[in-house]
Specification:
Largest sheet: 7 strands, mixed
Strand content: 15-25%
Number of helices: 9
Distance between the termini: 70 Å
Radius of gyration: 29 Å
Amino acid sequence: MIIKDQETTLETIGTIKDESAFKMRTSQKAFQILSSLYSDKPLAIVRELGCNAMDSHIASGQPNRPFHIHAPNTLEPWLTIQDFGTGISHENIYEIYSVYFASTKTNTNTQVGMLGLGSKSPFCYSDNFTITSIHNQVKRIYNAYFNAQGMPTIALASQENTNEENGVAIQIPIKNSDIGEFTASIWKAFRFFDVKPTISGGTINWDNIKPDFEGTFWKSFHNQNNQCVAIMGGVAYPIDIYKLANDHYDIARKAGLVMHFNIGELDVTPSRESLMYHDWVISALNEKIDLVKKDFVAKVENQIKNSDNLLDAMKALYLLNNRWSFLNSTLINSKVKWKNIDITEPRKSIKQICQNNLKSYSKRVWGRAKWSESEYASLDNNALWYYADLKMGSIKRVINFIKTHSKQNIIVTGKDRK
């Protein structure tokens, strides 16, 4: 990823007679600091190595090919992240894995890498890991470890000719007590990747939840824990909503927004755990949300307008108003109509249509009574509508059903109310 450098303007008084540039001295302490950038070490390792694997596939012209992850388990307590990209030559492996801030990706926005730190991320958890590189029909295995002086070191362990395709595999030993955390981190790190990795050693439930709304570069999830997220290069960065413009606060806080940015549109911290809030980054976030708002309104109005029937239109509006309270006159018209029928207040409209001949039943969670009764219809998607056309006994049947089905609401209208 191309890093936007800040231009420096130097103003001096008088003539500079002598100057010396700052330098960095390598030491055990320096490497320990660089290896401790991450607050969530399991997540950092799988994210950084996974991004490197994805970058390798992009570099080799295979952007839609999944890389592979062996998830740790009690019988096989190691994590392996393997790509099938370019591989790394013996001449380049030492530069990439033993030199901090050495990156081959700083001049392109087609790849996520930028600082040359991610390949060393296993050192934040383990004092050793193995690197298997297949390049031009030669398979080499290297050990990366801290030597007796506490300095990170890489050494060639074996070499052989092979017919296997190019690629790199990183294997890290995992403590049994950390297996669950690493497995959870795999889901968290790659849940927004367009091409998910293949998995062995365990099962990852990607749980492809359908968004409530989506546009060309954004999605809205009601179960996103009210978090606003920026996706860049597949990596999710939580957005600090207090950095945004004031009129974006509600939609950022309540809509569960997931917005996609091109690589290089935003800047991130060296740990890749959060965004860097330069003025130009804040401006990019605000501009994106402005576009989302316009698109969001169109999506809401179209969903209501294109509902197959009046009830579906009312349900859509009711659920929208419940889940996204920011949908007020600033975003959506105060009067909402479906085929010229005013449905601005759906529950009142239904009561009028049914001429007050309606009851809604649901199971009680608290209190002595097993069920509750209301004169207003439940508009949740799981509600059942029942037209009572029996001479008697409909309500008793409904109540008996409610007592044994805790997640079911039933609305009854019609002649039989007994």
